[in-house]
Amino acid sequence: MTVIKQDDFIQSIHDALQHISYYHPVDYIKALGEAYQLEQGPAAKDAIAQILTNSKMCAEGHRPICQDTGIVVVYLKVGMNVRWDGTMSVTDMVNEGVRRAYLQPDNVLRASIVADPAFTRKNTRDNTPAVVHYEIVPGDTVEVKVAAKGGGSENKSKFAMLNPSDSIVDWVIKTVPTMGAGWCPPGIIGIGIGGSAEKAMLMAKESLMDHIDMVQLKARGPKTKIEELRIELFDKINALGIGAQGLGGLSTVLDVKICDYPTHAASKPVAMIPNCAATRHAHFTLDGSGVAQLPIPKLSEWPNVTWAPDSNAKSVNLDTLTPAEVQTWKAGDRILLNGKLLTGRDAAHKKIADLFAAGEPLPEGVDFTNRVIYYVGPVDPVRDEVVGPAGPTTATRMDKFTEMMLAKTGLIGMIGKSERGPVGLEAIRKHKAVYLMAVGGAAYLVSKAIRKSRVVAFKELGMEAIYEFEVQDMPVTVAVDSTGDNVHETGPKEWQEKIRRLPVLA
């Protein structure tokens, strides 16, 4: 009978979460490197270069790949012959490992989990609790899969209870465009087919932890109907032209994973969950011999890609920015930002809305007049950092506040990731403002452009407080200009048509 010590299990969870915070899985890096070589869209190729450069920087610096260090999801297969040497429940052990990992002083990870989700949404401050799934199986080991799932991709999860005769392919191809780019493509799509509603979702999530092998699968050819379906969906999703960060291009997905399970004769449950550019998961087995040992990738396994700013990028002084200058920018322009900007995301926007509703002014020191806001919740700094990884959050969540911010604060520009929705776009056009896109999945790279940082309001919100950043050559793209031209609409349409004409993909 195998004995698993409580301390070994906790330390293994801790080590795995630290490991995946700064090491991408090697299969993902290789697949992304191949996508970079094949990519023909300039904007998409630039975005992938930023992601790859960021990834190698994080591997070298042992800092998070993304500022959103995720909600922890753990799949456990516990052998029936295993005995636990400890006083805590297994779930409590997992949570203790999470707590220690996210509060690790040398590599602090962002605490994103909020309790009382329907009402107060108070941050638990240590990223607990995790979501834990158990399976009791024959054997004398404990198999562990640990993932840290980002909110941007998790929010794009889809589920449908199809009729038995409905086409899975038709549903997927219709649904993927509705996910927008908030899941930070290129990534992996996980699909669960069958079982019950919750079983389909569990399978879709767990499939994301499978090895990326689409190139090898296509080279040898499919051997099963599921493999045929994977290839068909891979080709048809990429033919949509969505591309990296939704900018239009050849690579939207790097792989499609599918798990299935028998289901009721009247049902066809189908779940679809994307994994983002911050793909993070680790697998290990405990056999009673001690703490899990995770393989450390060699830096030579990263492709030789180093991002540099576009030579045609415009240098902009945020401290002297005017509405007239903003209105000269065109969708697709590359810009390097210099000077001071303010940050704010969901909770800060809600607090501002509540202040205005109560007839109260903005907090002292907060003035958005002719300024730009960055939708970000940064990681706390360590060592000599000014700020930790500080990539953009999904901009569409702020759409409901955009009219208020542009009409009442003097704000003239916003920075986030992914597309804007109809409400946000209308407000941008109406007020002749601008929306700038930073690359999701390049948080550590972006943070190096931030030279000073200080909290100016709502300190109690933690990572959702309003900061003032002073930046130097922070790279962004004009995603929506003051006339409403929108690269997230024009880019995919252009590349969808180009892909149709490519003989290799025809």
Specify the number of helices: 15
Work out the count of structural domains. 2
Amino-to-carboxy terminus distance: 57 Å
- Quantity of strands, as a count: 19
How many strands, which pairing sense, and closed or not: the largest β-sheet?
Answer: 5 strands, mixed, barrel
Which structural category fits the helices and strands?
A: alpha/beta
**Helical residues, percent:** 25-40%
Strand order in the largest sheet:
14-15-16-17-19
Portion of residues in beta strands equals: 15-25%
Radius of gyration: 23 Å
* Shape estimate: globular
Uncertain spans: none
Q: What's the overall average pLDDT, rounded?
A: 96
List the helices and strands and how they pair.
Blueprint: E1 2-5, H1 6-22, H2 26-38, H3 42-61, E2 71-79, E3 82-85, H4 90-102, E4 114-115, E5 122-123, E6 131-137, E7 142-149, H5 151-154, E8 158-162, H6 168-175, E9 187-194, H7 197-207, H8 214-220, H9 225-238, E10 253-261, E11 268-275, E12 281-286, E13 314-317, H10 323-326, E14 334-343, H11 346-357, E15 372-374, H12 399-408, E16 413-416, H13 422-431, E17 434-437, H14 443-447, E18 450-457, E19 466-480, H15 487-501
Parallel strand pairs: 1-3, 2-6, 9-10, 13-14, 14-15, 15-16, 16-17
Antiparallel strand pairs: 2-7, 4-5, 7-12, 8-11, 9-11, 14-19, 17-19, 18-19
Helix pairs in contact: 1-4, 2-3, 12-13
